[in-house]
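#onboarding

Welcome to the new folks! Below is a worked example of what a typical request in this channel looks like: someone posts a single protein sequence, and someone else replies with the predicted structure as tokens. Don't worry about understanding the tokens yet, we'll cover that in week two.

Example request:
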Amino acid sequence: MTFIKLTQTITLSPIGLAAPAAKPVLISNLQLKKTLRKKNGSPVFVAVVTEDLPNSKLEQELDKQKVSDSIKVLLREFSDVFPDDLPIGLPPE
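Example response:
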């Protein structure tokens, strides 16, 4: 596919698919920056793998207090209706 933008002709062509690597290549942040600075036209695909997200306030509080398993299941199921900024416990009398 070819098109013209202003005075420049741009041609798009499909890229060849490479065979899958035997195992993933792990590189550092610095190596990624160096790779991105190179202008060889090759596409760069990056996957960021992290550990589990930190527990929400609800999860932290459930871990601290003695709450029955059935209540924990119920609170987790409807956690979207309990905003994180609500105070824990009952209001003062």
